[in-house]
From TrEMBL:
Pathway: Purine metabolism; AMP biosynthesis via salvage pathway; AMP from adenine: step 1/1. The keyword Calcium does not apply. GO terms for cellular component: cytoplasm. This is Adenine phosphoribosyltransferase. Residues 45-148 form the Phosphoribosyltransferase domain. Its main location: cytoplasm. Its EC number is 2.4.2.7. It catalyses: AMP + diphosphate = 5-phospho-alpha-D-ribose 1-diphosphate + adenine. The gene is apt.
Length: 170
């Protein structure tokens, strides 16, 4: 199945000059969604996963499905002041400034095998920040996987020491 047929381009969103990759058509198709989950699972090659970390907000869609399929816990990583319990945070650079991500401080036990998931790998700043959060709590990153990768932004360069996989590269 060619999942790119379920990803549409939205020009000038969220600002002029940007072509946004909209995955809502993919989410509308149970068949395509199941296929994407199946492909993500195949990329893991039977590696043990204790927890799946999903990045706000579009990363939550498939991260929760992957956690269920893997019989693993799900950990949300969110923007500041969205998580209710004690948390750790990491500041990171975006294409257009800085931002901060947070994770509950009790979400990962030392030695937990972690899968990190997001919808898109762009510059790699968000994923790099999440890796730092996971490792600060003692988690062992097994893989980072992404639905899409914007290869021209070279996000993999920030993640060289990890197993990084994408289903589609633009």
């Amino acid at each position: 199945m060619d999942i790119t047929q379920y990803i549409r381009d939205i020009k000038d969103f969220p600002k002029e000059g940007v072509v946004f990759k909209d995955i809502t058509p993919l989410l509308l198709s149970p068949t395509a969604t199941r296929q994407v989950v199946k492909e993500f699972i195949l990329m893991l090659k039977d590696q043990k996963i204790d927890k799946v970390v999903g990045m706000e907000s579009r990363g939550f869609f498939f991260a929760t499905l992957l956690a269920q399929e893997l019989n693993a816990g799900f950990i949300p990583v969110r923007k500041p002041n969205k998580l209710p319990h004690t948390k750790i945070q990491e500041k990171y650079e975006l294409e257009y400034g800085f931002d901060t991500l947070e994770m509950h401080s009790d979400a990962i036990a030392p030695g937990d095998k972690i899968l990190i998931h997001d919808d898109v790998l762009a510059t790699g700043g968000t994923a790099e920040a999440v890796c730092k959060l996971v490792e600060r709590l003692g988690g062992e990153i097994v893989q980072l996987n992404f639905l899409m990768e914007l290869g021209f932004l070279n996000g993999r360069n920030k993640l060289r020491s990890y197993d990084v996989r994408s289903l589609v590269t633009y």
